[in-house]
Amino acid sequence: MATAAALAAAAILLALAVFQARLAAGRPLGRFAWGGAHDVLPPPLRVASAASILVYALMALILLDAAEVTTILPGDWVGTAVWILAAYFLIGVAMNAASRSADERRVMTPVALALCLLCVGVAVG
Fold first, then answer.
1. Would the pLDDT of 34 be above 90?
2. Is the pTM of this model over 0.85?
3. pLDDT at 76
4. How far is 16 from 98, CA to CA, in rounded Å?
5. Which of 50, 53, 64, 112 could disulfide-link 93, Cβ–Cβ 3.0 to 4.6 Å?
6. What does each C-alpha distance from 52 to 3, 81, 116, 120 come to in angstroms?
7. Integer angstrom CA distances of residue 31 from 39, 51, 70, 104, 116
8. Residue 28 dihedral angles phi and psi, to the nearest 5°
9. C-alpha gyration radius of the chain
């Protein structure tokens, strides 16, 4: 169960990384992210989108390590980190649900919920 949950979460995080790369490159998809205020992100948000790619990669690595798909990260902290990720994505559910952008609410709220539940699956699996 934990392996499947980690792989599913990693796939979603990869899709989000591709999405963020497109935002960073200036694609007109901003209505789905960062509050939806800009169709094409201004430079500071483009930088943030680019940085988020690294964050998503680290999140995926934590989940894959916790599910023992990989054994890259040292120490016993990954189990705790998975619970922190679950809480982070739970907050993301609330934040996306409260977005002024209907597109962000409609698309990103279920994505954040899926990631939250998959993190819990990894943590308890």
1. yes
2. yes
3. 86
4. 20
5. 112
6. 24, 17, 17, 22
7. 5, 19, 35, 6, 22
8. -80, 65
9. 15
